Amino acid sequence: MIFQDIVFWMLAVLAIVAALGVVLVKDLFRAALLLVVVFIAVAGFFV
């Protein structure tokens, strides 16, 4: 159970930081890459 909690919190922090990066970054290409990271992190919640 502790392993699942650690993975959840790692994915949660990754998703939040990447989402903030999408909003704050100036370059459109990097924002798109960060959005892909957000999608992958959120998909990890359902695995």
UniProtKB/TrEMBL annotation:
State the InterPro entries in the record: Nuo/plastoQ_OxRdtase_6_NuoJ
Which parts of the chain span the membrane according to its record?
Answer: 6-23, 28-46
Q: Does the keyword Membrane apply?
A: yes
Q: Which UniProt keywords apply?
A: Membrane, Transmembrane, Transmembrane helix
Indicate what this protein is called per its UniProt record.
NADH-quinone oxidoreductase subunit J
In its UniProt entry, the species of origin is given as: marine metagenome
